[in-house]
Amino acid sequence: MYIHSNTSSSVCSPPSSSSSLKSSISAKPSASDQPLPSVLFSAFRSSLRYDVFVCHNDEDSDLAQSLTSFLEHPSNGLRCYLQERDCPVGGAVSTELLQAVQDSHCWLLLITPNFVRDDWCLYQMHQVLSEGPMSQRIIPAVVNMPRTKLPLELRFLFTVDLNVNKEFGYAQVYRT
């Protein structure tokens, strides 16, 4: 999710660059020629607006957009929520956040040093944890963070490591 760490604005901001939203990565799932998994056609999925809520600090938006492009690629078929793209102009940030969290099946927390220093990111993390603390629907994806520096609330969860092999990490997020 696009975060304004040094602002008290109560409305969503427009995307910083439309060209960066269209960025994509070369990683594709190994089964890209396979039909989409049947779970993507379930009644439960159709009851929610998004498959994945992507929460991130604004300084990490390129990585978040790259991961979202991978997840939304037609061969993967997921629907992601990114605040900078999906929040209606003039919408109250807190209201839109709560609605998007409730309208999402999974919650991806892109945990970076920027994320843990940002009170707004930590607020979002707590909103996600309150929705499904032990639901296996929270996906912490870690970049440039040792486990000892993770927020205490996330240390008991398995994480996706995006440091060593980003493409493998992206595929792991997709499978989750």
UniProtKB/TrEMBL annotation:
Source organism superkingdom: Eukaryota
Domain TIR span(s) in chain numbering: 48-176
UniProt-listed InterPro entries: TIR_dom, Tol-interleuk_rcpt_adapt_Tirap, Toll_tir_struct_dom_sf
Name of a matching Pfam family: TIR_2
Family annotation (PROSITE patterns): TIR
Protein name per Swiss-Prot or TrEMBL: TIR domain-containing protein
